[in-house]
Amino acid sequence: MTRATLDKQPHEVAAMFDDVAAKYDLTNDVLSLGQARLWRRAVAKAVDAKPGDKILDLAAGTGTSSLPFAAAGAYVVPCDFSLGMLREGKRRQPELPLTAGDATKLPFADGVFDAVTISFGLRNVQDTNAALREMLRVTRPGGRVVVCEFSHPTWAPFRTVYTEYLMRALPPVATAVSSNPDAYVYLADSIRSWPDQPALASRLQQAGWSKVAWRNLTGGIVALHRGYAPA
């Protein structure tokens, strides 16, 4: 696997997620110290799915992130480019229409979704700007986007502690609970090199999204960015 600061090769990233699919959700819960479930609930609240809504859930992995939207009565399409993740998701949630797709070339028509969301996957896409434009293309006028992604803690002392955790504590913890600990070294590096909150907001605006805003979760470890497709 190439370093996150270098160009990401889609086939390598997909293979990495294939390897960790079986234990991915469990590993995330352990590594986030239980915060991952709180972040998923925050995403569900921000998307605010209504009965009959069409929701595209990108980087959905095994489909765990899609379940709240389905429970709200929406028609949700979990989409991921890791076939290993999708196979594991189909085993767990056979009722969901899990779909293989590349975020930079989505296999959907223009303007078909009321909302598009992606959680902890945008930083693993080879071309972030192309993905944001594609998300806009498949969203109806007035529809919304919710991006949940690791970000930069806003309090400097906490940011230092967090960085130390990522680079020192995360690898041994991942070794204990993950089937591919090297994948989590890559993921830690990708978190460190990801743009901060204002920079990601700027990218959303440049891609054509309007009314872009964000709010921090867990002190800025994670940020929720929202925007709307121009009406």
From TrEMBL:
Its EC number is 2.1.1.163. The keyword Cell membrane does not apply. It catalyses: a 2-demethylmenaquinol + S-adenosyl-L-methionine = a menaquinol + S-adenosyl-L-homocysteine + H(+). GO terms for biological process: menaquinone biosynthetic process; methylation. It comes from the Bacteria. PROSITE patterns: SAM_MT_UBIE, UBIE_2. The keyword GTP-binding does not apply. It holds the Pfam family Ubie_methyltran. GO terms for molecular function: demethylmenaquinone methyltransferase activity. Keywords: Menaquinone biosynthesis, Methyltransferase, S-adenosyl-L-methionine, Transferase. S-adenosyl-L-methionine binds at T62, D80, D102, A103, S119. Signal peptide: none annotated. InterPro entries: SAM-dependent_MTases_sf (IPR029063), UbiE/COQ5_MeTrFase (IPR004033), UbiE/COQ5_MeTrFase_CS (IPR023576). Pathway: Quinol/quinone metabolism; menaquinone biosynthesis; menaquinol from 1,4-dihydroxy-2-naphthoate: step 2/2. Methyltransferase required for the conversion of demethylmenaquinol (DMKH2) to menaquinol (MKH2). PANTHER family: 2-METHOXY-6-POLYPRENYL-1,4-BENZOQUINOL METHYLASE, MITOCHONDRIAL, METHYLTRANSFERASE. Belongs to the class I-like SAM-binding methyltransferase superfamily. MenG/UbiE family. This is Demethylmenaquinone methyltransferase. The lineage of its organism: Bacteria, Bacillati, Actinomycetota, Actinomycetes, Kitasatosporales. The gene is menG.
